[in-house]
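User: Before I run my own analysis I want an independent prediction to cross-check against. Here's the chain; please return only the C-alpha cells and, at the end, one sentence I can use as a sanity check.
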Amino acid sequence: MKHGFGKTSGRLPARQRGAFTMFTAILVLILLTEMIIYAVHVGVFEQRKSSNEMRQKEAFHIADSAIQFGKEFLLANSTDVSSGGAGGWLNDRWQECPDSPEPEHPCSAEPDTLLRGDMYFYAPEDPDLRGEDDVYGNATLPISRSTNTAYQELTDEAQQVSTYALLCMLHIEREAENQTIVPNSIVQGCTTNADLMDTRYYMVTVLARGEADCDGGACTAKALIADKIGSFSPGGGEGGAAVPLTARSTFPPTGTTEIVPNPNGGGVGVPISAWLNANDECPIDPPVDPTGGSWSTCERHEWYGTDIMPDDFKCPTANCTCGNQEKRISYGQGLEQVVGIDIVTDESFPCDLWTYIFGVPKYEVDGVTINDESVDFVKYGLAQEVLDDCSSLDENSSGVYWVSGNLCSVNANTQIGTAEKPVFLISAARTTRFNGGASLFGILMATNVEVPGATFDAVGTMTIYGAAVIDAEMDYRGNFQIVYLENVLEQSLATGGQG
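Assistant: C-alpha cells:
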C-alpha cells in the first residue's frame, strides 16, 4: 500500500512559505531603512560640518581684514602712537591695563600677568566714550562699517568685528648692572614709568574679534586674531618693498645692473626687479631715469642656469648671468635700453626711505636737515655692532651691522652672511665698495645720513642674494647683481639689535 510520504518530505505548507518570505522582506526593508537613515544622518552631519567650517573661515577672514586695517591705522599715526606730547596717545588714548581685567577686556589677551601690569590698552580720545572709570567701555580702534567706506565693501550686515590694541612701551637698559629683571638682556619688559620710557621703542599688539552669520547681535561663529607691530626691528616701518632693488638716485652710465626679480612682486606672475624714485615733490632727489643705466633682468632659472635651486642659494658656477638670452625682461639693445614691466618708476615713491623702512624720519621737519635722533636710533638701537669699516665681515657674520667712516670695502671673493644667517648691512660710510667676486646674503642699505654725497660702488661682478636699498649716490663700474630671495629677506628683517 502506497501512502505517498516520500512525495511530501522536505516541503513546507504554502502558508508557511509565505510567512517566511514576508519575514525576509520585512528584515530587508528594515535594513534598507536603517541604511537610508544612517546615510541621511551622515549627509546632514557633513553639511553642518561644512557650514560650520565655512562660517568659521568667514569669521577668521573678517578678523584678519580688521587686523590689517588696524595696522594701517597705527602706521598712519606712528608719530603719535608713543608720544607723550601734545596730541600724543600716551596722554589722550592709552589707558593702563587694570590689575584683574574681565575676560572680554582687551588686556586679557596678554596671558603674562607681569607684562600685562605694565601695558596700556587703546581707548577713545573722548572720555565720555570710555565707559565707567575708564576701565573698558568702547575701547575699539576707530575702524567700523559706519566710519570706513573701504571696510563696508569687505563686510555686510551679517558680520561683526571689533578691533583693539595693546601697547608695550619697552623698558630698555643698556648697562649690564641695571639689567636686573631679565639678566643679560637690553629689553627688561614693558613699563608705564615715564622715566624709563624711550618713545622710539615700543610694541603694539593689534587684536581683532570677527563674527559671522549674525542676526540681531547673535552670531554663530567667532574668530580671535592677534598680530604685533613696533619700532624695534630693522623693519620698524613697513620693512621696505618686496623688490630686489629700491633706489632714490640716478644710475651711472657705466656698469650693468643685473637682477633676478621677485616673480610675484606686482601680483601673481608679475615680476618686479626695481622700484625707482619718480616723485617730483622730493626736495633733494630728482626723479630717476631708468634708461640712464644698463639693465639685464631675467627669471631665476635663467640666471642660475638650472631649474633646481642650489641648497645654499649660491651660484653653482662662476658664471651665473642673464647673458644675452632672448627671455630677458629688461635689457640693452645697441645704444637703446629696453625697460620692461619689471622696472617700476613710482611717482608716489617715498622721499624718506628711512620712515618707510625703519619707521623713523630721516629728516627734520624742513625735509633737508638729517634727524640725528633717528640716526642714533638705528645706529645704536637696531644695530648689533657699529663698525669703522667692513673688513671684519665674512660668512660667519649675521644680524644687523652699521658701518661709519670713510670706506666700507668688501674684499674680492668675500662672502658676507649665509642664506640661513643673513645680514642687514647699513653702510653710512663715505664710499661703500664691493670688489669683484664679493657677495652678501641679506639686505644692503647704503645711505648718506652721516656723509653728504656718500656713494655706492661695485668693481667687477658682485652679487647680493636678497635685496639692496640705495639711499646714496651710485657710481659703480662693474656688474651689480641682485638675486631676490624672499626667505632671506624675512630673516634679515626679523633680526634686531635688541633680540
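Sanity check: The chain has two domains: 62-230, 245-494.
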